[in-house]
Amino acid sequence: MNAPANSTRGVSLQVRNLWKRYGRQEVLRGVEFEVQAGEVFVLMGPSGSGKSVLLKHIIGLETPDAGDIFINGESISTPGVLERHRLAMVFQSGALLNSLTVAENVGLYLSEHRLKPPEEIARVVSEKLAVVGLEGAEDKMPSELSGGMKKRVAIARALVMEPQLILYDEPTSELDPLSAIVIAEEIVKLNRRMGVTSLVVTHDRDLAFDVAHRVAVIHEGRLLAQGAPEDIRQSAHPVIRRFLHAEFNPQTVT
């Protein structure tokens, strides 16, 4: 996928030599990469490789044992940096509140912080739902939505913040193949229309190669390679090849 031609409003992200240990387990081991403003960067790897822990560091929920993270060249450990830049997270589960309608879920950030009057919040919510193809869904409850629709509502909720950086945590997990394609399309559309920077963490190989400008592969807390999608596809690294070409072979079952 080519980088967006529009003028970007996204921010750059730099992760420098990040280390994190829980007890005796080293979860992140010198992770280092850079995401350019307006880029879709995919961090791909199997479950338990450190992807979600890395996201928690980027949004400030965890503090590294060593290393640092920068947004537009400013360390997030500097007071006010995270607050000054608009980061949004699309959680793996969607994280919708079941007691609220779709409109109330999407507009929650604006209403809780009293950033706009109710009529303006309603307008913004309808606008963001239209962006993700859910016009008219305002009064539905989360229990009435499919898995793919819940993910799109979560994306609309992130868009309400007018984000400069969106972090996607396994956005296609638990989705059927058609719904996963819809989510991939939404990620690409948002990047092209809005120029927002996107960091996608996933173990979904198809998603990674469909949406990314660049891909990095993480395994047991270390980055094994990063580069253009085609470069990663053709990697000769044995761990990467095993991950990318894993298939079930009934002949090996005893």
Description:
The protein is an alpha/beta fold. It has two domains: 13-86 and 163-252, P-loop containing nucleotide triphosphate hydrolases (Rossmann fold, 3-Layer(aba) Sandwich); 96-162, no CATH class. Helix content is 34%, strand content 24%. The chain has helices spanning 51-58, 81-84, 102-106, 108-112, 118-131, 147-159, 177-194, 205-211, 229-233, 238-244; strands at residues 13-22, 25-35, 40-44, 66-71, 74-75, 87-90, 165-169, 197-202, 214-219, 222-227. Residues 3-7 have low confidence and may be disordered.
Nutshell version of this structure?
By secondary structure, the chain is an alpha/beta fold. Helix content is 34%, strand content 24%. It has ten helices and ten strands.
Quickly count the helices: 10
Top-tier CATH class of the largest domain: Alpha Beta
Question: Kindly state the mean pLDDT as a whole number?
Answer: 89
Q: For the CA atoms, what is the radius of gyration?
A: 19 Å
Count of discrete structural domains: 2
Described by the principal axes of the CA atoms, the overall outline is: globular
In terms of DSSP E residues, the strand content is 15-25%
CATH topology of the largest domain: Rossmann fold
Ranges with pLDDT <50 over ≥5 residues? Answer: 3-7
Helix content: 25-40%
Regarding quaternary structure, what we see is single chain
Major sheet summary line = 6 strands, mixed
Strand segment count: 10
Give the CATH superfamily of the largest domain.
P-loop containing nucleotide triphosphate hydrolases
Span from first to last CA? Answer: 42 Å
- What is the SS-derived class? alpha/beta
